[in-house]
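Shift notes (night). Ran Diguanylate cyclase while the centrifuge was going.
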Amino acid sequence: MPDTPLNEQAKKTMLRKIPHGVYVCGVKDGDDLNGFTASWVMQASFTPPMVTNCVKSDSTSHAMIESSGVFALSVLEEGQKAIAQNFFKPLRRSGNKFEDIEFYQGEATGCPIIKEALGYVECKVVGSVKHGDHTVFVGEVISAGEHKEGKPLLLEDTGWNYGG
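Came back to this:
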């Protein structure tokens, strides 16, 4: 196949068509807690149960995950766009993102879990791949829980684009 230049518009359009859920990733390092809106998440293994979570390499949360080796994913329900939006704010500019959001710390990791989410998984990092501007953290699911039934919030339902 001959080398052809990358069609930037087609690349952006096609990458944005990959469906993504919307989650709040809670992190803990020592006594410090943080959270961020995550959408580049997927199940990666049945046995042991694993997920991948792609995290922006220059973020506070990235450094916290690297240091602590744990994270929790709260699965947001459709209609919880406001919760997701709250966790887009960088920590250094907004202070405590959990201020108005009810959460508790997971028993297995101590990471924050959103009380009103559909449920959660807590993970210990068992591997990572660092390329580009995000790191792919592979997390083994060491705890999980359901809060309620419902449909998950999808990125396409928010009107936001994170991709392409």
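The first strand starts at residue 23 and ends at 29. The mean pLDDT is 91.
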